[in-house]
Design a protein that fits this description.
single chain, mainly alpha, Arc Repressor Mutant, subunit A, Tetracycline Repressor, domain 2, 2 domains, globular, HTH_TetR, Homeodomain-like_sf, transcription regulation, DNA-binding, transcription cis-regulatory region binding
Length: 211
Amino acid sequence: MTTAELGLREAKKQETRQLISDRATQLFLEKGFEGTTIAEIAAAARVAKKTVTNYFARKEDLVFDRQEEFVSSLARAVAHRRPGESALAALRRDFDTAVATQDPVAGFAGHDFSRMVADSPTLSICLRGLHDRREQALVEALADAVGEQPTDITVRTAAGLLSAVHRTLFQRIQELTLAGRPNDEIAAVLAPEAARAFDLLEPSLGSYAVA
């Protein structure tokens, strides 16, 4: 198979994956997560049930189709911090950018999507698990940054504090979204609130894991 053929094959796979995800999201919004079956999703996407499960191992994965991006987001920001920049400064800068661009991965997912997740016990539990996985990824990134083991108590405490701020801010975005506030207003509220939240960590982590 030529490089061009491989490229077309991969593009087709991504197109099919996105189609399945889009059709599933439509059904979830209409019928609720628990009220929608894999068979209905397959029918809506005009694919076989096995095709759906080949692309998405769990039903929850159809909702959180950018979960790996979410899980790796904090670790990635630390790994890409600028020379002389601490982990806190890098994470703060990255979050400011996410707010300015109203990034869905940071929580700007819209009212209907956020309500669907909040109303589903299964999705709410899954979301908490994604936050936990994101914190563990941050532990590993910080350990690498400071040359310690992931079991080091300072590394784990730093990751816990940094993750807690991000989790709190994510929940704040969800709270405002569910209250019916548009993204522009939420971003305007979050910018100063995030500054205050990150300021609380400056005395303890302002010089931690400087590149």
